[in-house]
Amino acid sequence: MTATQAGEARAGVEVRLEDLRRSYAGVTALDGLSLTLAPGELVALLGPSGCGKTTAMRLVAGLEEANSGRVMFGGRDVTGLPANKRDVGMVFQAYSLFPHMAAWENVAFGLQIRHVATGERKQRALDMLELVGLGKYANRYPSQLSGGQQQRVALARALAIRPQVLLLDEPLSALDAKVRSRLRDEIRRVQLEVGITTLFVTHDQEEALAIADRVGVMQSGRLEQLGPPTEIYSRPATPFVADFVGLTNRMRGDVGGGAIKIRGASIPLVHPDVPDGPAIALVRPEAVSLVTDGEIEEGPLVGTVIAVVFLGAVSRVTVDLGDATVLAQMQTSAASQTPAGTKVRLAFRNDPVLIQREEQAAPASA
Amino acid sequence: MNRSRRIKLQVFRSAVFLVMGVFFLVPIAAMFEFSTRGNSVTAPRTMEAWTNIIKTPDLVDAIIASLELAAITSIAMLVLLLPTMVWVRLRLPRLNRIVEFICLLPLTIPAIALVVGLFPISRWMRINISDSILMLSFFYLILVMPYSYRALDAGLAAIDIKTLSEAARSLGAGWGTVMLRVIVPNMSSAILNACLLSVAVVLGEYTFANLLTYENLQVAIAYVGLVSAGTSIAVAVASLLFAFVLLMVLSFVGRPRERMARAEETIVAPESRILPLRDSYIGVQK
Q1: How much is the ipTM here?
Q2: Chain B residues with CB-CB distance to A87 below 8 A
């Protein structure tokens, strides 16, 4: 049997969350969340701690009850169903394998609950372990598996029952960086192979952007923006999204004629129809480049490199403009031309930027 | 750890083990010696006191009754405490302190006060339900609660009960299945410890039984002691040995199975099968 057969690729169902609300002792955790996952889609909910993303997932799983709103699986209202009747598979942040069962017994647990015959149960469990690359570890106990392996078994266990929906609650956060990145790719591969509708919760932007078809950024129980990873990163809808996803330079300027003028340089706006006046532009470090050619005369965009941080293929350069510092991100080969102490002139890519008004902004860098 | 330090530690452990062994075994050996004395100083050793145990019907009945009480109390304790403690931990954590207080309360009340307080209930039960000695198990349940609570609480604290039960629930398990197939197997040692403590308390209980005019093992030993000190001591040694053997058996049964191998075993991760990712932007780590 092949891994695909083991996963029994099934058409994913549409998952719809309608105006979900949940509060705890007067504190609102989820404030009218509405979200639709297309069949087979992987949506990542991203946000800081306490933004309501885990609450949303627990409501979908049936582990908690919503104060109001509905959860629909394939057009069927499952809001009132308890967790064990929802037909979801879930992988938890904490290691959740049953310590007294071997890997294959863990995977077969849900099948046993469903009264699948012993022979078929074991075969399906072994097939699922093959799918996650742990076929030869079937007889190992959780204490004999590494963290990454345990989470893979948990994924196999969640998928073995052929659930309608897969829920992943920060399944990688307890792992070290290398294993996390490897397992992230593995989860995506398996999800695509099985074709199951998946909700993935994380506070790690890199994880969310790398794995998801669409990313939903949450804040204070609300969905700030939902869109493909590229859109979330390069066209953030709100200052919070711009700030939370990736690094952002906050630079003072003056809005006028659909653009913002920063230290003499004009950059177009994402939303050009805003009133004129002073504002703070949110500029990505990679939209900032450094000019070193020829004689650099003093000017508002001229500064001195004070630090170069090597990040591998790219490097991050900090430039001191005298009254502010600006981050620029570029290829490491380019950054090597501007060691600390080099005089440089800043140039901005012509990408539209978001702005924030002074009164709603945190202190800006320029 | 270097070799000389290891040897010192081993010597220290052996010394502690020896001292503790002497502390426990010398009184028992002395009791045994006393129970095998003849009727006079010059009389030869005899096992008459020991054979008297099975020749005394009241004593045999009391032993059987105490064993039955121990079994009933242990089962009742588990049925009452375990689901309550699990439920409080999972769904009503704010009640944890209150449940703990209630369970530990019998420790702070003298047995005589408990008996006086429970006497009307005992009388009512004797008239309306049964006069059997097994009714004592209701009162013993109260007595064993503090010890059993502590043992079960330690077991529950050792596992991530919330995640395990949620994982089982998400796989389709009802609460009964969660309890019997996930929680109980993962705290078998704690359950056995709680049972052992219950058995020890019940087998050693005297005040309740005596004041409520039931004849359990300790009451029977006291009565036998009035007519034959040797037999009384022989029964006491036998009950101590029984508790000791029971402890060994429970320790053996409760030991994690061989298949649950050591966590420190080095595992080599299998090669990852990574497919190329689709184009996507990677956010800059803040």
Answers
A1: 0.79
A2: 172
